[in-house]
Amino acid sequence: MLSVFHLVDYRFTFLITILTVLLFNKSLFFKVDYSLLLTFIGFFVFIGNISTLDSVKNFMEQILNSKQSTFTYSIIVSQVISNVPATMLLSGFTNSVRELLLGVNIGGLGTLIASLASVISFKLYINEFPEESNKYLKSFTFYNILGLAIIIPLIYLILFCI
User: Fold this and answer.
1) CA 77, 82, 84, 89: dihedral to nearest 10 degrees?
2) CA-CA-CA-CA torsion for 126, 131, 136, 138, nearest 10 degrees?
3) What radius of gyration, in Å, describes the C-alpha atoms of the chain?
4) CB atoms near residue 135 (< 10 Å)
5) pTM for this structure?
6) Is 74 in a helix, a strand, or coil?
């Protein structure tokens, strides 16, 4: 938490974490899902690079020109690149913070990739029940799309009509 609030340098915290794991439980390094970690890193590098392109800046400024569009596009973008990277990407182009945060949080529903936490849960599930991965994915997608279909109109109504 001290690093999050910039009271302690993140590099120092990282070093302490590595040394602690080495000292107390080296086997944890073999349990890390490095492919998922690289996926996270890849998303953030991609977002950092793409958000500097003039064509992307112009496009984002055009589509995020209102509270409604910020809410809507934050949900849509979350479906493709996940809600945390979507937040990072869109936050630089809008002042509609409330609508952005609501949109990306709601945008965590929907596709499996909409929330990287869902990707983690899916990987854990298929490690235990590999023969049921298709069934899980179908049920997951159905209920998440249903959740989106129910919650989006309700939040839209509360935010913009009442």
Assistant:
1) -40
2) 130
3) 19
4) 10
5) 0.81
6) helix
Q: Which residue has the tokens 């913009």?
A: 160
Q: What is the pLDDT of residue 7?
A: 92
**Cα separation values, 57 from 36, 53, 97, 135, Å:** 28, 6, 18, 40
* Predicted local distance difference test score (pLDDT) of residue 70: 97
**Digit-coded pLDDT (tens) for 128-143:** 999 999 999 999 999 9
CA distance 34 to 156: 38
**CA 9 from centroid of its chain's CA atoms:** 24
CA distances for 73 relative to 11, 14, 21, 146, 147, angstroms: 34, 34, 41, 19, 17
**Predicted local confidence at residue 55, as pLDDT:** 93
Long-range contacts of 57-62 (CB under 8 A, 24+ apart): 57/93, 60/89, 60/90, 60/92, 60/93, 61/93
CA gap 16, 24 in Å, rounded: 12
* pLDDT of 65 over the 90 cut: yes
Q: Angle at CA 126, nearest 5°, toward 85 and 37?
A: 35
